[in-house]
Amino acid sequence: MRFYHRERMYYCGVDLHARTMYIWILNQTGETVFHHNIRSCRMYFHLVLAR
Length: 51
Known about the structure:
The protein is 18% helix and 45% strand. It is an alpha+beta fold. It has one domain. A hairpin with a 4-residue loop joins strand 2 and strand 3 (32-39).
């Protein structure tokens, strides 16, 4: 990505489907901080990110 120049504290990947989404969060060193399959709902997604 041409506008993505700085390192971040965390990296998040989301595999979105109709009823579920798989969320995987890594820290700067590439260690898994969180990975879980949750319902595809904005409320659940915000709860995961608020942790």
